[in-house]
Amino acid sequence: MAELISGLRADRVRVNLERVCEEIAAAAQARHAAVAGHGDSVVEIVAATKYIPAQELPVLAEAGIRVVGENRAQDLQVKVAAHGELFAWDFIGRLQSRRVRLIVPHVRLIHSVASESALRELARHRALARPGLRILIEVNLAQEPGKAGIAPAQLDDFIARSPLPVAGLMTMPPLTDDPARNRPWFASLRDLAQARGLEHLSMGTSQDYSVAVEEGATIVRIGTKLYD
Fold first, then answer.
1. Contacting residues for 78 by C-beta, under 8 A, at least 6 apart
2. Domain map (residue ranges) of the chain
3. Cα separation of 76 and 100, whole Å?
4. Each residue of 185-221: pLDDT tens digit?
5. For residue 84, is pLDDT > 70?
6. According to the model, what pLDDT value does residue 2 have?
7. What are the φ/ψ torsions at residue 124 (nearest 5 degrees)?
8. Each residue of 126-146: pLDDT tens digit?
9. What is the pLDDT of residue 42?
């Protein structure tokens, strides 16, 4: 298990954030050049804070980070209680149905809805949800055994039964040391979203966000790249 990150400096995080923004802008420009008629797009950075202790969060706000994503329901509760006003909050971890009631009051977006039990719990606890809460459906494009995400063939039925508005799709491609190998998975998710008129694509992490943006990501989930 990775260790918690402490001793963050706002000036260093700000430099890292600026570098990531520059790389995203370059990737978006490359996509615009490759796709005729592709309009301007905004790519949102969600800072992954799984390994950031609550006491370090004000440093991120000082550095200019506006949206954070948490992986664990309990950590989300603690951090929102301490610094809820500093950020917009997303849930980006694996969504356990028994934790749904702890998550929905705090977040604007859940990136990882991928099970029948999650749909049931979202419906059950809809009254607790923060106003405007929307979800992203996680798709297991490679259909890796044991990995979260629904199969593409199940997507239309899953969307139709969602008790909350579906803002878009999310995916985690197979692990690889070569970011370019994830391009086909990102392109496939983009095609699935476009065919269904969905706005958002949450895809790309610190390892491969430039490739994801080139393939149409509207949200990237960045962790270590911001904190190194």
1. 54
2. 10-227
3. 12
4. 999 999 999 999 999 999 999 999 999 999 999 999 9
5. yes
6. 72
7. -65, -35
8. 999 999 999 999 999 988 888
9. 82
- Phi and psi of 102, rounded to 5°? -80, -20
Segment 21-77, tens digit of pLDDT: 999 999 999 887 765 444 446 899 999 999 999 999 999 999 999 999 999 999 999
With beta carbons less than 8 A apart as the criterion, state whether 220 and 213 touch. Answer: yes
In sequence order, the 6+-apart residues with CB closer than 8 A to the CB of 102 are 73, 74, 76, 77
Query: Which residues have C-beta within 8 Å of that of residue 45, sequence separation ≥ 6?
Result: 17, 20, 21, 24, 65, 67, 220, 222
Residue listed under structure tokens 């490359």: 30
pTM: 0.94
| DSSP state letter for 204 | -
Alpha helices, H only, 164-227 = 183-195, 209-214, 224-227
Q: How many C-beta atoms lie closer than 10 Å to residue 7's C-beta?
A: 7
Q: What is the dihedral of CA 176, 135, 199, 215, to 10 degrees?
A: 0
Q: Which tokens hold the place of 78?
A: 């603690």
Place of tokens 């800072």: 47
Give residue for tokens 């005729």. 36
H-run or E-run covering 157:
helix 155-160
Residue 169, helix vs strand vs coil: strand
Question: Three-class SS of residue 198?
Answer: coil
Q: Quick one: CATH architecture of 10-227?
A: Alpha-Beta Barrel (3.20)
Task: Give Cα 100 to chain centroid, integer Å.
Answer: 17
For tokens 């998550």, name the residue. Answer: 103
Q: What are phi and psi of 2, to 5 degrees?
A: -65, 150
* Beta partners for residue 150, in sequence order: 139
